[in-house]
Amino acid sequence: NEGFLTVGKNSDNKTAVRFFSEKTSYTVNLLTSDGKKDEKNCTGITTNDKYLYVADNEKRIDVYDLADFDGTKKSSVCIGYFETPIIPTVLTVNNDYFYVATNYATNPVNDNSNTKKSKYGSCIISYRLDISQTKTFGIKRTPNSLYSVPDGVKGICFTKDRLVLSIYTDGTSEIRAYNNQSLDYSRITIEDDALDIDVTVNHYVIDDDILTNRVKTLPLTYDVACSNRKVVIVNDYASSKNFFGKFIFGLNYFYGYAI
């Protein structure tokens, strides 16, 4: 199905995934691996191949069978976990990479070089996708790159030449677009406690030097998606029109911003 996915608390305070399209919408409740209703306050969600991924409140990503979300089932049981060195709050897939971001001011960088430093503490970690990696649910286990980004990242999406972030800080939400073509990078070491090893990766700094556009948006803008050079707000936690508990039962449109 073509449409939007979002995750949050349902009207009964249980964690659920909601699918929206122009023609239909439906809810699938998330269950823990032992079949109990999940109650975590999850925000990040994405898909690839036969898997659906949801950001956990711990240093891991919950994985589900994507076939459970075709509109024929009411619930889906967690089939496993992908551990990360950060607490994931935002997830997305672009081309052959899986991106995991945190809006917490934590950055697992062990950098002893004289490279460009970032004033930011939040970060995005990328992994290569590989559907042959069934034990890790289609994701290569070792991180590929780390992006130092502004604090307060709530959503990520990509256009052909832009990295787009939704940012919430100091009571204000913004969508910011950055030129992600030919980015300079350094080689750094990150402490991957999920693997219990240090890993050397490409390090990119996403800051005002490459900022191309910024737009103030609805308060507490979370998930965003890119479609036809527009950024679409898929989930927002403050607006009375977009709050998930109401959003789930009848929002018929999305807010879009040109970038």
Give a brief outline of the structure.
This protein has one helix at residues 244-247; strands spanning 4-9, 15-20, 25-31, 45-48, 51-55, 60-65, 75-77, 80-83, 90-94, 97-102, 109-110, 122-128, 145-149, 153-158, 162-169, 172-179, 186-192, 197-205, 211-216, 224-227, 230-233, 255-258. With 259 residues, it is mainly beta.
Topology record:
Blueprint: E1 4-9, E2 15-20, E3 25-31, E4 45-48, E5 51-55, E6 60-65, E7 75-77, E8 80-83, E9 90-94, E10 97-102, E11 109-110, E12 122-128, E13 145-149, E14 153-158, E15 162-169, E16 172-179, E17 186-192, E18 197-205, E19 211-216, E20 224-227, E21 230-233, H1 244-247, E22 255-258
Parallel strand pairs: 3-7, 13-18
Antiparallel strand pairs: 1-2, 2-3, 4-5, 5-6, 6-8, 9-10, 10-12, 11-17, 12-13, 14-15, 15-16, 16-19, 17-18, 20-21, 21-22
List keywords for this structure.
four-stranded mixed sheet, 22 strands, mainly beta, single chain, seven-stranded mixed sheet, 259 residues
